[in-house]
Amino acid sequence: MTRMQKYVAAAAVAAALAGVPSVSYAVSQGKTAHGTTIEQSTPFRAKAKAAAAAHAVARKAPTARVVASGEHVTAAPGFELWLTADGKHWTTPGDPEPQFRSVVDGNIDLGTPGVSRQSESTGGRYTLSGLYYGGKGTASRVEIETGAGTVHGKLLTLAGKPGWGVWYATTAAPAKNDGFDFIGAVTVYDTRGKVYAQLK
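Now predict its structure.
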């Protein structure tokens, strides 16, 4: 073998050895030996898509209306609600004297999910309201089961993270009172569509 042939053979071996790490690197980056990309498994893709969809829904979901302390909100003619740091206040057409439900008197546990309920019947309609508190996530909407079907209410809360808020709704009173409880379960859902708190 001539000196020139030895140099060419040595260069070919060096080039072959130099190529080994690059082949190993390509395979470690998710490539097959033939250069095809290895696809992610179907269950992994499905979970990733579901998580992205849930995140998108949560971003678009409504949240409770933030009100200033003492700001009056008209739930129905003659029925007003307002929140302060110590609880829920309201008046009704039949009783203009303010009523009050405390969140600081120790009667409710703000660390445990819960819902309270009051109902007033005036002029052939029910005005419903109550507290919601203690749930995980961000409260988004409220549904009230009634003898006439599901009623969708509204949510109020104070700025910051007080850990509680107020829900309210109105619905037509039943034409005939047959003795059964017209107002049923009250469920507050979070922005991901899960139950935030419930009264059955």
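The domain at 65-199 is CATH 2.60.40 (Immunoglobulin-like).
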